[in-house]
Amino acid sequence: MADDAYLFLLPDGHPRLGAALAAVGLLDCAETPAVHGWLQAHDVSADSEQVRVLPAEAHTLIPSDAERLPVPLSEEEALRVQQECAPQSITDVETELLAFRDLTQDWQALVHRALTAGIPASRIAQLTGLDPQEVGRLSV
Known about the structure:
Elements: E1 5-9, E2 19-20, H1 33-41, E3 51-55, E4 68-71, H2 75-85, H3 88-104, H4 107-116, H5 121-128, H6 132-138
Antiparallel strand pairs: 1-3, 1-4, 2-3
């Protein structure tokens, strides 16, 4: 696994950046001996507001005097970190995009259920905005 994020200790007097580790939810890396040892060495707990996380691509934002630790993340964890670190307006849109993805992943099954229920293909196309030919292909 690559280093996908950085844990760092926000020095006193610096503006808040990144996300509090506690705010992103449980990360697998937080349970590793490396992270436990790093936290102990700096005498902080994982739920401290001082313990922050940033995606690796934003590492230049970390203050130069901050203690940091690169950590690997799963794809889902990296997404949570990015969302928690993003400005709220971006987070809202990304949440909508994820909901859209979840809804559209199974669109063919939904159309098939509608056809099975007796809804005409033309009406399904009208209600969904799908191409009528796409709907027609599923009715065969």
